[in-house]
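Quick review question:
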């Protein structure tokens, strides 16, 4: 069964203040990681037009591959997400990268960020929320509130993500991906 990523992203001027607010609310720190995401475009369709994404993500140099499906029509970004770690046969992601290039995929850009994550226990029966504080090179500082949901729980997850963002005082959600923001900044 497919899982859906349900998320909102907000620009944040003061990550330290938001970090304190999360800790004061009982959020559990999950650590700080360095992410380096290399995005690819399909040889026969433009992911920018279909609102899909394919990337190799390196978390503290450990590679994984992610496919994100087209966004559902919703005020909260919601879409299928498939992600898995690359194993011992591809310890740095270079074999997967070479395969994608041989298949005609084109490298688009690389997004680098420092990500600090927190787990937030739900107040009602629902999936745990993850809040990340991101410092994205050449893009800025943002907070993402994310929940993973099965198809029958998307509505509840969307409501929960929105309510938690409001409770933190976060405003003006950013609908663009970090990749889109980076490409527009590099214009």
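Suggested answer, residue by residue:
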């Amino acid at each position: 069964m497919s899982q859906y990523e349900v998320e909102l992203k907000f620009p944040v001027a003061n990550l330290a203040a938001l970090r304190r607010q999360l800790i004061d609310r009982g959020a559990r720190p999950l650590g700080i990681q360095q992410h380096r995401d290399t995005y690819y475009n399909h040889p026969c369709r433009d992911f920018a037009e279909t609102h899909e994404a394919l990337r190799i993500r390196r978390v503290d140099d450990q590679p994984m591959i992610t496919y994100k499906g087209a966004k559902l029509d919703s005020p909260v970004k919601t879409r299928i997400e498939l992600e898995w770690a690359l194993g011992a046969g591809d310890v740095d992601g270079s074999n997967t990268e070479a395969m994608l290039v041989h298949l005609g995929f084109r490298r688009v850009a690389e997004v680098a960020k420092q990500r600090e994550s927190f787990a937030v226990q739900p107040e009602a029966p629902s999936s745990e929320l993850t809040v990340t504080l991101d410092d994205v090179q050449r893009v800025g500082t943002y907070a993402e509130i994310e929940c993973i949901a099965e198809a029958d729980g998307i509505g509840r997850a969307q409501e929960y993500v929105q309510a938690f963002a409001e409770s933190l005082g976060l405003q003006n959600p950013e609908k663009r991906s970090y990749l889109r923001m980076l490409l527009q900044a590099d214009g």
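Why it works: The chain has five helices and eight strands. Strands lie at 3-11, 28-41, 53-59, 62-68, 77-85, 106-120, 129-136, 140-150.
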